[in-house]
Design goal:
Low-confidence stretches: none
Bound molecules: flavin mononucleotide
Radius of gyration: 14 Å
CATH architecture: 3-Layer(aba) Sandwich
CATH superfamily: Flavodoxin domain
Oligomer: single chain
Shape: globular
Order of helices and strands: EHEEHEHEEH
Mean pLDDT: 97
Distance between the termini: 5 Å
Structural class: alpha/beta
Number of strands: 6
Largest sheet: 6 strands, parallel
Number of domains: 1
CATH topology: Rossmann fold
CATH class: Alpha Beta
Length: about 160
């Protein structure tokens, strides 16, 4: 399996976009082919490629995905594609002030992809906007361990 990552971005005010841009730079530097794609107008066919998919999304409303991710997550839910050959990671942006729905946008993707048979690489990174830390910095730190796990997946293929 060649080293390819697609970062799929669900965002309202751009934080997830910043995270994706930061990771794109870093992954590029590590010799990995990276694409970043906004979730607007995405369909479940995006998962048919041989990439590791990194879901990078925030949370809105009552634990919903952002508007630009809504039709995508609904289409996955409707199609319930067979994703048993798909590997993914999740970066979930949220705010602990919303205690009942903390980072639910990313968690919803995780549950759905898992129910379609996809295999998550590593733990979900959850970023708390009320912590005062920068999501792109936390993501950059987290991505080192996550990439090591990706490398072991790639080396088995
Ligand atoms: C109106 C509104 C509703 C939100 N609802 C939630 C929520 O239910 N759960 C959560 O964890 N974060 C919630 N957040 C926090 C955002 O997910 C967080 O600020 C995130 O970093 C925004 O990322 P984005 O700029 O990529 O959209 C909410 C933020 C706003 C402004």
């Amino acid at each position: 399996m060649s080293k390819q990552i697609k970062i799929l971005i669900g965002t309202m005010t751009g934080n997830a976009q910043l995270v994706a841009q930061e990771l794109e730079l870093r992954f590029d530097g590590d010799g990995i082919a990276v694409q970043t794609i906004d979730m607007d107008r995405l369909t479940p066919e995006v998962f048919e490629s041989d990439h590791v998919h990194l879901i990078c999304t925030s949370t809105y409303g009552q634990g919903d995905v952002p508007d630009n991710a809504r039709s995508f997550i609904e289409a996955i839910d409707d199609a319930k594609p067979d994703l048993r050959k798909m590997y993914y990671g999740v970066i979930a942006l949220g705010d602990r002030t919303y205690a009942e729905t903390y980072c639910f946008g990313g968690k919803r993707f995780d549950e759905l992809l898992n129910s379609c048979g996809a295999v998550r690489i590593g733990d979900i990174l959850m970023h708390d906007a009320s912590s005062g830390t920068m999501p792109e910095e936390e993501a950059a730190d987290w991505s080192q361990g996550w990439l090591t796990l990706c490398e072991s997946v790639w080396s088995q293929k």
